[in-house]
Amino acid sequence: MSRPWWQRLVAGAGGVLFVLSLLTGLGLVYHLAERHALHFDWTYRQRSSLSEASQRLLQQISGPIQVLAFAREDPALRRQIELLVNRYRRQRADIELSFVNPDLQPDLARDLGVRSDGELLVTLGQRQERVATLSEQALSNALRRAASGERRTLVFVVGHGERSARGDGNFDLGRFGEQLAQQGYRIEQWDPAEVGPPAPGSAVLVLADPRTPPLPGTVEDLVAYLDQGGNLLWLGEPPGMAALSPLGESLGVAILPGVVLDRSASVAGFDDPQFAIARRLADHAITRDLQGLAVLPTSAGLDAESIGGWQAQPLLATVERLSWTETGPADGASSYDAATLERPGPIALGVALERPLAEGQQRAAVTGDADFLANAYLGLGANLELGLNLVSWLSGDDDLIAINPMPAPDTRLPLSERALSGIGLLFLLAVPLALLAAGMAIWWWRRR
């Protein structure tokens, strides 16, 4: 017996109301999702989210930010750019991202000085900054420069056979100089024979392994630069650091005789014990978040004491029982000799120094090796990261040290041939046979 017409009408109206309510609810959820997006980052150490340093930087910047990406029609590259910029857009809604194909608009790319595919142009007000490396550190550094209108300067001492920040030789620092330029640093040179030293506070002075001993007047200029409050990065080498002992004395840094030998180098894959494996010695901004170990080939050992208002803090050192300073021939047959001036490990390889001034802090850093930043060794371990951290700290950009990328640990699962064979047999043979047996058992039970 069929229901009355009015009951059918009520039932139909109820169905229509349910469908309308469902669609309305979905629309409200979509609207809220568009206006209030939720983002959860469960990656190791929140690698897909902005660091706290970048978040603080965005809070300090006022005005809309425009990011113009010069990228060809490459989905992978454009997706990489979107993922990077979206980290910032989740913190601020006034960041606009747009793409330009440099093949279709070559005049625009040429006028703006774009040199590579994937380069970004960041605009904040009337200031523009380019980003050549797709990383949080590079983009945050560009935002900081655009907001402050300030570009940090590194002045390299030249004229004594120093390593060139623009050279392409194995022992030059050209690759490191390129990384510094991409981070927004301006690189200049100072020849003591031509002009006086740079004004303290205007730049960081870099002394990179002079091969010929500087004249006494040059050493006096360097000491006077420190006395007046200048920041210094001294990249030394065992043979040449002794000629600069007055500079070391003004800092309270003594250079140990000989060269550091490290037997633990063989564990890291180096046959030569002169490759010192530098382990973090102090909880310092430079070394706190290093992702790995630095490798310093042919390094001098350092001793530091706090004098003249300087607070000295050793940063890196070798292991205790496997290293020493060798004053004799440095080869595989060398061993520690307590009857000489040799020093057993741990040996300090890098020192950070800081002292208060009337305005701000004065900083200096000394390493017993310059090779770790050379073109031939920059890619070893955490060498590049250590170099960038040294420069950032000396320039006063402490926050930018914390923006280095965080690699995920254990991204690979090494398996033996036996384990791979076992997994293959499990899923290709054992599991299908088990399912077949279960099906046969169920069939037999139902027949009974």
What does this structure look like?
With 448 residues, the chain is an alpha/beta fold. The chain folds into two domains: 104 residues, Glutaredoxin, CATH 3.40.30.10; 251 residues, Rossmann fold, CATH 3.40.50. It is 33% helix and 20% strand. It is built from eleven helices and 17 strands. The strands form four sheets. Strands 6-5-7-8-17-16-14-11-12 form a nine-stranded mixed beta sheet. A four-stranded mixed beta sheet has the order 2-1-3-4, covered by helices on one side. Helix 6 links the parallel strand 5 and strand 6. It is extended and about 115 Å long. The two termini are 42 Å apart.
The total strand number stands at: 17
Helix content: 25-40%
Characterize the overall form: extended
Q: State the separation between the terminal residues, measured CA to CA.
A: 42 Å
Number of domains: 2
Order of helices and strands: HHEHEHEEHEHEEHEHEEEEEEEEEHHH
Helix/strand class: alpha/beta
Reported CATH architecture of the largest domain: 3-Layer(aba) Sandwich
Q: Output the strand order for the largest sheet.
A: 6-5-7-8-17-16-14-11-12
Whole-angstrom Rg: 31 Å
Summed up, the helix count is 11
Overall pLDDT metric: 84
Poorly predicted spans: none
CATH topology of the largest domain: Rossmann fold
% residues in beta strands: 15-25%
Could you describe the largest sheet, including whether it forms a barrel? Answer: 9 strands, mixed
Assign the CATH class of the largest domain.
Alpha Beta
